[in-house]
Amino acid sequence: MKKNIATLAITALGLALMIYTAMRGLDFVTETLPADKQILAYFALAAAEGGVLFFLAYYLYGAEGGWQRAISIIMLVIDFLGSVALFTFDTLFRAGENGAIKALTADEMLTVIYGLSGLIALNVAASIGLHLTDPEALKQAAANETKDKIQAEALKQLGEQSASIAAQIAPSVAQSMADEIRAQYGFEPAPADWLKPAKPEAGGNKPQSPLQ
């Protein structure tokens, strides 16, 4: 019972602080957006506090295999640091506006914007990576690679046997083509063995083809 209360208390504390950091991060991001695009700031939170919650849940309940666990824990740490950076810069930004400290320079603001862009890109890449490293996806990829190798080897062997296959099939194909030509001119089909090599007769005379 006491453990459950302690767990509930620490979870409530974490959520309360995450709400604070999310609001500060949201405040900072809105300063980088035009007035008619303020709604986009909420989506940016998916790369900070949202990423922390997502990758924590995925690491605990969804990750399978070393790659997925590694991606989840790394992105959990990165998104946490991004969240800390956002609310810290927003605090500095507002304190500078109020005159409490020196205001942030344009270069410093640009650095933060670049950092936020990189954080969002990493979250997108990590989401793709989780799909690519799914054990079932890896299994299917290995099966597809095996099929590709089998097909490549089969085509190679077919190429090596093409000459002998052609020698075996060509007489029948030629017979069929000859029959079609003869039929066009009203002749009866030639004997099926007319394409076979002729054997010299005893007297030295060679038999002629039915087409001659």
User: Order of helices and strands, N to C?
Assistant: HHHHHH
Task: List low-pLDDT spans.
Answer: none
Mean pLDDT: 84
Number of helices: 6
What can you see in these coordinates?
The chain has 212 residues and is mainly α. It folds into two domains: 2-135, no CATH class; 162-192, no CATH class. The protein is built from six helices and no strands. It has helices at 2-30, 40-44, 49-62, 65-97, 106-132, 135-184. The longest helix has 50 residues, at 135-184. It is elongated. The N and C termini lie far apart (107 Å). 16% of the residues are buried. The mean pLDDT is 84.
Which secondary structure elements does this structure contain, and how are they paired or packed?
Blueprint: H1 2-30, H2 40-44, H3 49-62, H4 65-97, H5 106-132, H6 135-184
